[in-house]
Amino acid sequence: MLNGLSMQGAYVNVPSSDWRLFKELVRKMGWEVQTREDLLDSFIKSRPVKSPLSDEEIMDEVKAIRYEQ
After folding, report:
1. What is the pLDDT of residue 3?
2. Of 1, 60, 64, 66, which one's alpha carbon is 20 to 30 angstroms from that of 13?
């Protein structure tokens, strides 16, 4: 429904008692709504499963930066 439109993100605190009303308004306006948990879940799912670096390589980088080696 919102294809091709520029979007502006906003963070809104809605009382739990009004959440159903807010979701209904969002649905009627054709907006999208995501909770913090939804955003966190989508971020976690977007991360790679396997790191291109080994644990040893990561620790070598940390030590090099920390101890300026």
Report:
1. 64
2. 1
Alpha carbons 69 and 67: distance in angstroms, whole number:
6
Of the candidates 69, 47, 50, 48, the residue with the CA atom closest to the CA atom of residue 59: 69
Cα 26–Cα 34–Cα 4 angle in degrees, nearest 5: 65
CA 4 to chain CA centroid, Å, is 22
Give the pLDDT of residue 1. Answer: 53
Q: Tell me, what amino acid is at 9?
A: G
* CA gap 68, 62 in Å, rounded: 9
On whether the CB atoms of residues 58 and 52 are closer than 8 A, the answer is: no
